[in-house]
Amino acid sequence: MSGNVSAIGFFTRTRRAGRIDITDILSWLWLIGGTLAVLVPVLWAGMSSLKPEAEITRFPPTLLPRTAIQVEVQGFDKPLSLWNVTVDGETREMAMVRRIGLKAQMVDPANPGKPVSVDTRTISPVQRLTVATQNYTDPLTRFSFLTFLKNSVFVTFVATLLTLIVNALAAFALSKYRFRGDKAIFVLIISTLMIPLTVVMVPAYLVIVGVGLVDNLWGVIIPTVASPTGVFLLRQYMLTIPDELIEAARVDAASEFRIFWRIVLPLTAPALAVLAIFSVLWRWNDFLWPLIVLSSRENFTLQVGLNAFQGEFSVQWHYILAMTFLSLIPVTLVFLFLQRYITTGIAGTGMK
């Protein structure tokens, strides 16, 4: 009960006790608008992923997944769709035989006779709520979605693990050791943030070709391990760790690696969690670099594999939406698990 009270108190708290200020109203509008801007596209993608293929492109669009009802009509080989038609002031359900421009030929499904010509602007389809589960089952059974998912999980997990280790080692050296040129090296690392990705893409690809990692998942992982953002984030956080703690460990004859592994890393956990979230988002959503490096379908990551549903003349939106919605689940779980470290980790980078 206290949890509910505190939550209500948080959302109803105002700048001045017992009085609503204009800043409170603007804050509420900003938070509600931001929440809707993020939530509505995800909700729309989730609901659309349950629609049949023909319903996704229907105009005007509907939020709930619905499909037209089809019935068998005597004298017709294929099932006909049902429509609400007003004939002689009476609205009834009729089956559409054919549609030509603004006119449609309709028959009574119970007593088919001569087709009646009606204006298509005055009719509406008879629909029912339908969940197109095949949008999810078909890619899992007929296509290589599980292979794409496995490759993405491998790339994301290994790249994130290596990113944390490599960047933490570099940040430890730049924050806790004093040597000639340490500031220049740090500035050089940070300055690489200003280099566009397109500038280094061709040289990086030539290096991958030279070491024989083309069409290999390691060719996707290794070039992305060293991150100037990660070095900056971890170095700034490690500067807040007292040097006296490290000196005390050295007095106790602890090796430098033991100091790094047993003292510095545990204390840097909030910043590592923030970097882990960033790395997971970067690797999981990366499309351009895997598209360049990988050529075999069995090595495709999820984002590259989803591109296979887009052909030259048609796009299988029902499969793309379903698989895209599934691909949001792992990233969302990682974020929910590590979100409590975000504020602490980012705030700690600017304390010194």
UniProtKB/TrEMBL annotation:
<protein>
    <submittedName>
        <fullName>L-arabinose transport system permease AraQ</fullName>
    </submittedName>
</protein>
<feature type="transmembrane region" description="Helical">
    <location>
        <begin position="153"/>
        <end position="174"/>
    </location>
</feature>
<dbReference type="InterPro" id="IPR000515">
    <property type="entry name" value="MetI-like"/>
</dbReference>
<keyword id="KW-0472">Membrane</keyword>
<dbReference type="Pfam" id="PF00528">
    <property type="entry name" value="BPD_transp_1"/>
</dbReference>
<dbReference type="GO" id="GO:0055085">
    <property type="term" value="P:transmembrane transport"/>
</dbReference>
<feature type="transmembrane region" description="Helical">
    <location>
        <begin position="25"/>
        <end position="44"/>
    </location>
</feature>
<keyword id="KW-0812">Transmembrane</keyword>
<keyword id="KW-1133">Transmembrane helix</keyword>
<dbReference type="InterPro" id="IPR035906">
    <property type="entry name" value="MetI-like_sf"/>
</dbReference>
<dbReference type="GO" id="GO:0005886">
    <property type="term" value="C:plasma membrane"/>
</dbReference>
<comment type="similarity">
    <text>Belongs to the binding-protein-dependent transport system permease family.</text>
</comment>
<feature type="transmembrane region" description="Helical">
    <location>
        <begin position="186"/>
        <end position="211"/>
    </location>
</feature>
<feature type="transmembrane region" description="Helical">
    <location>
        <begin position="317"/>
        <end position="338"/>
    </location>
</feature>
<feature type="transmembrane region" description="Helical">
    <location>
        <begin position="259"/>
        <end position="282"/>
    </location>
</feature>
<keyword id="KW-0813">Transport</keyword>
<keyword id="KW-0614">Plasmid</keyword>
<feature type="transmembrane region" description="Helical">
    <location>
        <begin position="217"/>
        <end position="238"/>
    </location>
</feature>
<keyword id="KW-1003">Cell membrane</keyword>
